[in-house]
Amino acid sequence: LASAFLHQDALFLHGQERSLARYGKYRTAQPANDSYAKALLPCSTDKGVMLFRHWMSRFAGGYIPFKGDTPMPPADNEVVFDVWNSHTKNCKYCLTALRRLKRVRAVVFLASALVAAIRPKVLGVVGSVLSALGLSGLGLVVSKLIKMFYRYE
Fold first, then answer.
1. How far apart (Å, rounded) are the C-alpha atoms in residues 68 and 12?
2. Is residue 44 pLDDT above 90, yes or no?
3. What is the largest CA-CA distance in the chain?
4. CB-hemisphere CA count at 13 Å for 118?
5. How many CB atoms within 10 Å of residue 135?
6. What's the pTM value of the predicted model, to 2 decimals?
7. Which residues contact residue 53 at a Cβ distance below 8 angstroms, ignoring those fewer than 6 apart?
8. Are 138 and 109 in contact (CB under 8 A)?
9. Nearest 10 degrees: CA dihedral of 1, 16, 76, 153?
């Protein structure tokens, strides 16, 4: 569910990126006189960032200008929310999770069918129907999770 929070502003960020490019303000870092470069951060993990920003200030004039193609074409929702091509197909952890979720979905739907067909004698008709519906609902929830590995919106 963390990705639900992280991906919620993808379209907004794309619009901001286009706006920065349109007005010529697209840069990969701020000038050396920004307050972050002078900040004292207590975490040892921030040392690399501080050293990089110091190097950038000293040798690159404080920022690295964007020298790419600045007229950015608008991207439709299919491109912005395409998680498969932008991440999943290249991430071994996501591919493993996707494979496992597909197996879980198949097992849950198979169990639902088996409960509905075989267990009425043991669980009774009502118990069998409720169990099959519960398992089918679980299968649909897993299917929703699987869709999030392909397209996020």
1. 21
2. no
3. 79
4. 6
5. 20
6. 0.57
7. 29, 32, 36, 37
8. no
9. 10
Rg of the chain taking only CA atoms, in angstroms: 25
> CA dihedral defined by 17, 20, 24, 26, rounded to 10 degrees?
-60
Q: What are phi and psi of 125, to 5 degrees?
A: -65, -45
* Res 1: pLDDT: 47
CA angle 130, 136, 139 (to 5 degrees): 145
Measured in residues, the chain has a length of: 153
Q: Which two structure tokens, joined as six digits, stand for 15?
A: 């619009």
CA-nearest of 54, 63, 82 to 25 is 63
Would you state the structure tokens that stand for residue 142, as one six-digit string? Answer: 């897993």
**In the block, residue with structure tokens 């609902």:** 137
Tell me the per-residue pLDDT of 109-140, one tens digit each, with 9 for 90 and over.
999 988 888 766 666 777 788 888 999 999 99
Q: Retrieve residue 51's tokens.
A: 């050293």
Q: What are the CB-based long-range contacts (under 8 Å, 24+) for 42-48?
A: none
